[in-house]
Design brief:
A: alpha/beta; Rossmann fold; 6-stranded parallel sheet; 13 strands; B: 437 residues; Peroxisomal Thiolase, Chain A, domain 1; 14 helices
């Protein structure tokens, strides 16, 4: 955050006063996760839209087992305070909607929640999957939740997030646990105004039994490509923090930074051009040292930005090769090899540019949209190995690359989002680490934006 | 012929070469001008640690050395290990055998592994010709030591009164043999002349070295042997477009003393440049490697060190390998032709050519080696197939630890086979070794 002078200013004593008087937008300081941190920093409000709601019970038992104070009434006095005291979370079980009329119950719950939600609080709406409904009224009601959540996201303040989780018909409580923990904890600090589907790829299998939630990747071996620096290096460190053994991969010319990352995380360094024909075999061979692979994070990516009118074939191909073809080839090898263990996780990195498009980035945008197509088609193929594939789509993330942007572009990138700031590499890494958990077995084929609800392509 | 064991007692086990890391080699006073031996050795060790996931681990021993070494670096390897990601409980020691240093450190590690005294070890070497030690000259040193010994102020003043302006001039290390006063190039020129080594033959060796090294880089051969350092990703002495015709245009130097009818044949291209760099090799028992799922590229079979009397004139300074190899072959029941790869350190192109000529010469083989038949020639297409010192450069003590993993990887790629390593060293010494996969 150190180079975000505006954020530093409006969060300083004098700056806060001036900003308040002249109406400058505030930049909330986001609560971020660290080992040992409780799931929520205070009490939670838990609402149900209908008597048919099927997840409230799961949420309640999760929270009460953790010793968190839970109230059904959104006006309940909490923590020994009053009916307006701040809460850490407002969770709505919005499953079982039969028509748009049921939405009023949700409004009635969320209106006081919006007033009471504390700094970096969590508002989470859990609904059914619209596409599973055949009745127009039911599907309309389910789909309405997305508009509600995305709009509420633009109203939330002080680093509070508002997100929507769709739960497929066949999912049971345990299938939701890692997802609930992610969205409620500060691991999802910069995930805001988003929707995620759980259990929508049929045939999933796994367990949340006996997970050490402070080390959810314990005993797992992960590969991170592009690990020498930037987001990749942070991903490696985050996976390590969560207990994984990490194989750090980057091009040979980045080998010195790669060695530092690998040594920092106590992992191994593999200098490899992932576009080489032998790359998948070399990767699997190296992973054999660690007894196989559980997690592959396709983070390596390049940009060769040019206006389409000025683009040339070599630049175009290099972007498609690194950002897309290399991932496809490695995924094919993973699916064909026992080195990639049952219950494995593939996590790839798409981009806001792949969703919204970006001037000068036709090649990059094409490659990152292609990643989404790859995730869609690969997800059902992985079910037979109890494996999953998901993508994270970062928005404006503070890296060396964004630090080098022109001021205007950088400021627009930061402020044109509900959180009025750029995310940190660790925000992307936390999402990847959650996808990588064994306990996230019901999360497959998803693309989750980590962008503080950026206005581009939203 | 000097006596050596004529057959090798069988050892309990052979040490495995597991892998390696070096930094790209840099021409003197270039990319690494401000890097010390300790900086470079630490970087090379950290790259090795990263490659094999050994952060915080203890290995049996790290043995390294440097030829050009500051007196403050008396514990160079230990200091580098303490600054590296290896466990601080890793023991070390320093060795110095000129250009043979890190082949000798490889041998020392391999022997301890073979004897079961250690399970793993890192052999290394480093040298800088840029950050070279500079000593006060002998006169000044004597005066200062005398002052230090003085017991009274008057004594100190008296001792210091002995200072003379000429004593201010420091001693800068030179590539020169103390006992002959001749540079290594002058010695090599004499040997080349004695064996009639032509300019053309030397340039062919040099051009091939550059071409082979360039091809090796292109096919990613060094991707798992090297880690970039201070902005270098390749040896910066490499000239991929070197040709015999191009090299023929360079001006020769070192007119051989004592050979009035022989022209100078040695050039900047067919002699190694002064170079900075560091190299490391990870050796282990097969069991240690297997426990970690690490590969065994090749095994260290045997080695031999020889020395020649170049001072009194009966042999060339860099000809010791011509004696070491026959002894090594005999002990292992092999002939010169029994190898798939020949890795000969190219101190000068003429050096290895003179060595080959000696082995083809019945008189040398009879009179110097005591053989009725010459060792003969070998298939030159198997020589330095991924380039050698003329292209990579030659940080003296690091060269052995460059060559050992190069050969080990070549054997591993081939799947099986045997390779011969030969390194000549200042002081008339030479270290040679056999690897097998």
């Amino acid at each position: 955050m150190s180079n975000d002078w505006y954020s530093d200013f409006v969060n300083s004593g004098v700056g806060r006063t001036i900003a308040g008087q002249v109406g400058l937008p505030p930049v909330p300081r986001l609560r971020r996760w660290e080992p040992g941190q409780p799931l929520l920093s205070g009490p939670a409000l838990l609402g149900t839209a209908t008597a048919d709601g099927r997840v409230a019970k799961v949420v309640r038992s999760l929270l009460t087992d953790l010793g968190i104070e839970v109230h059904d009434d959104p006006h309940a006095p909490v923590g020994g305070g009053s009916s307006t005291s701040k809460v850490a979370a407002g969770i709505v079980d919005a499953t079982g909607l039969s028509s748009p009329a049921d939405l009023a119950e949700i409004q009635g719950f969320l209106t006081p929640v919006m007033r009471r939600i504390g700094p970096s609080g969590r508002i989470l709406v859990i609904g059914d999957v619209p596409a599973e409904a055949t009745s127009p009224a039911v599907r309309a009601a389910r789909r309405a939740l997305e508009g509600l959540v995305r709009s509420a996201g633009k109203e939330a303040r002080y680093g509070a997030t508002v997100n929507l989780v769709h739960v497929a018909e066949d999912t049971v409580g345990a299938d939701l646990e890692s997802t609930l923990r992610f969205f409620l904890s500060s691991r999802s600090a910069f995930v805001h105004g988003q929707r995620l589907d759980v259990g929508t790829v049929p045939g999933f299998a796994g367990s949340s039994q006996g997970v050490d939630w402070d080390k959810p990747l314990a005993g797992r071996t992960a590969v991170v490509t592009g690990a020498a620096r930037g987001i990749g290096a942070t991903v490696a460190k985050t996976l390590r923090r969560d207990g994984a053994t990490v194989i750090c991969v980057d091009v040979p010319s980045a080998g010195d930074a790669l060695a530092r990352t690998a040594n920092d995380v106590g992992g191994s360094a593999l200098q490899l051009d992932i576009t080489a024909d032998h790359a998948p075999a070399t990767l699997l061979d190296h992973a054999g040292r660690h007894g196989g692979l559980d997690v592959v994070v396709h983070n390596a990516g390049i940009t060769r930005d040019k206006l389409l009118a000025n683009q040339d074939r070599d630049r175009w191909n290099s972007v498609i090769d690194v950002n897309l073809n290399a991932q496809l080839a490695i995924n094919d090898a993973l699916m064909a090899s026992d080195v990639f263990h049952r219950g494995g996780r593939i996590v790839t990195v798409s981009s806001m540019a792949g969703i919204a498009g970006n001037r000068g980035q036709t090649a990059y945008g094409a490659s990152k949209a292609g990643v989404i197509g790859m995730v869609d088609a690969t997800a059902p193929l992985l079910v037979e190995k109890d494996a999953t594939i998901n993508a994270v789509a970062p928005g404006f993330i503070e890296t060396a690359m964004t630090a080098a942007m022109p001021v205007g572009t950088r400021e627009a990138g930061r402020r044109l989002s509900s959180m009025t700031q750029g995310g940190l590499p660790v925000d992307v890494a936390e999402t990847i680490a959650w996808f990588a958990q064994a306990a996230s077995y019901a999360v497959n084929g998803q693309v989750l934006r980590v962008d503080g609800q950026n206005y581009l392509g939203a | 012929m000097p006596s050596a064991p004529s057959s090798r007692p069988s050892l309990p086990r052979r040490a495995a070469i597991v892998g390696a890391n070096r930094i790209p080699f840099a021409r003197s006073n270039g990319a690494y001008a401000r890097a010390s031996n300790q900086d470079m050795l630490t970087a090379a060790l950290d790259g090795l640690v990263a490659r094999f996931g050994m952060a915080g681990e203890q290995v049996g021993e790290v043995v390294s050395g440097a030829v050009l070494k500051k007196s403050s670096d008396f514990n160079l390897t230990r200091e580098a290990v303490l600054g590296s990601r290896l466990a601080a409980s890793t023991p070390t020691y320093d060795v110095q055998q000129a250009c043979g240093t890190s082949l000798q450190t490889t041998l020392l590690i391999a022997n301890k592994i073979a004897l079961g005294q250690i399970e793993s070890g890192v052999a290394a070497g480093v040298d800088t010709t840029s950050d070279a030690p500079i000593e006060v000259n002998e006169g000044l040193r004597s005066v200062l030591l005398a002052a230090n010994r003085a017991k009274s102020t008057a004594g100190i003043v008296k001792a210091l009164a002995g200072l003379r302006p000429g004593q201010i001039v420091p001693e800068i290390p030179a590539n020169r043999e103390p006992r002959t006063g001749m540079s290594m190039g002058e010695h090599a020129a004499q040997t080349a002349a004695a064996w009639g080594i032509t300019r053309q033959a030397q340039d062919e060796i040099a051009a091939a070295s550059h071409q082979h090294l360039a091809q090796a880089y292109d096919r990613g051969f060094f991707d798992d042997l090297m880690t970039p350092y201070l902005g270098l990703t390749k040896d910066n002495n490499l000239r991929p477009d070197s040709t015999v015709e191009g090299l023929a245009k360079l001006k020769p130097v070192f007119k051989p003393a004592g050979y009035p009818d022989t022209e100078a044949t040695m050039t900047a291209a067919n002699s190694t440049p002064l170079t900075d760099g560091a190299a490391t090799v990870l050796l282990a028992s097969d069991e240690w490697a297997a426990e970690r799922g690490l590969p065994v590229l090749a095994h260290f079979v045997d080695a031999e060190t020889a020395a020649v009397d170049y001072v009194h004139g009966d042999e060339g300074l860099l000809m010791a390998p011509a004696y070491a190899v026959p002894r090594l072959l005999e002990r292992n029941g092999l002939t010169l032709q029994d190898f798939d790869f020949y890795e000969f350190h190219e101190a000068f192109a003429s050096t290895i050519l003179a060595t080959f000529a000696a082995w083809e010469d019945p008189i040398f083989c009879k009179e110097k080696l005591g053989y009725d038949e010459p060792l003969g020639s070998f298939d030159r297409s198997k020589l330095n197939v991924v380039g050698s010192s003329l292209a990579t450069g030659h940080p003296f003590a690091a060269t052995g630890a460059r060559i050992v993993p190069t050969l080990a990887k070549l054997l591993h790629e081939k799947g099986s086979g045997r390779g011969l390593i030969s390194i000549c060293a200042a002081g008339g010494q030479g270290v040679v070794a056999i690897l097998e996969a």
